[in-house]
Amino acid sequence: EELSTSTVLTLDYVDGVKVKEVLGREGYDPRQVARNLIEASFRQLFEGGIFHGDPHPGNILVLPGNRIALLDFGLVGRLTRPMQETLVTAIVGIALRDPETVARVLYRVGVPEGHTVIATLRDDVSRILDDYLGLHLDQIRSSALLRDLLDLAIRHRIKVPKEYALLGKASVALEGILRTLYPDLDVMEV
After folding, report:
1. What span, in angstroms and rounded, lies between the C-alpha atoms of 126 and 41?
2. What mean pLDDT, rounded, does the chain reach?
3. For residue 67, how many other CB atoms are within 10 A of its CB?
4. pLDDT tens digits, residue range 79-89?
5. What is the 3-class SS of the chain, one letter each residue?
6. What distance in Å separates the CA atoms of residue 87 and residue 93, rounded to the nearest whole number?
């Protein structure tokens, strides 16, 4: 605090290995690093209500013991408790392949700009879920699933709050890292 002001931010040096450099490097377990990244992400979201908005490989270091150090919190997203609960409901709806729940969450989370027929939205969600689910991480692109659901919201004239869009962008970046570290990882299991 004594070294920072409203116009000067003083940082600490973190000595670690870039996240993509742990592959094949002695003393590091890429699978454990991947699990730790997921755990850190979920703790941020559901315990603190915040998340790193730009988790690209340059912003993630791995410390001894496969611990994670996140750098550069210049872009941070915040989720209120109701937003967190909505996100959990959406994840459970997707995992259970429940198009009715996912459609209602999509409708509730956004701001409809006109009349949206929930049955039509549900049918469209069902088609999307059929295309993507039931596969392992190495077989699907959850970023594509997320993009298709957001595109669906746009088609149905539902404005999605920017926090969810930022969370989607961060999830895509994180997925790429996880896919590199541990392609067979079952995120739902973790």
Report:
1. 27
2. 87
3. 13
4. 999 999 988 89
5. CCCCCCCCCCCCCCCCEEHHHCCCCCCCCHHHHHHHHHHHHHHHHHHHCEEECCCCHHHEEEEHHHEEEECCCCCEEECCHHHHHHHHHHHHHHHCCCHHHHHHHHHHHCEECCCCCHHHHHHHHHHHHHHHCCCCCCCCCHHHHHHHHHHHHHHCCEECCHHHHHHHHHHHHHHHHHHHHCCCCCCCCC
6. 10
**Nearest Cα residue to 90 out of 80, 81, 82, 98:** 98
Q: How far apart are CA 36 and CA 39, in angstroms?
A: 5
Token output for 120: 């039509």
Residue-wise pLDDT for 14-52, tens only, equals 999 999 999 989 999 999 999 999 999 989 999 999 999
Strand-pair partners of 70: 60
Taking the CA atoms of the chain, what radius of gyration do you get in angstroms?
18
Q: Is the pLDDT of residue 64 over 70?
A: yes
Would you say residue 141 has pLDDT above 70?
no
Return the bridge partners of 112, or none: 158
Q: Per the structure block, which two tokens stand in for 61?
A: 């270091």
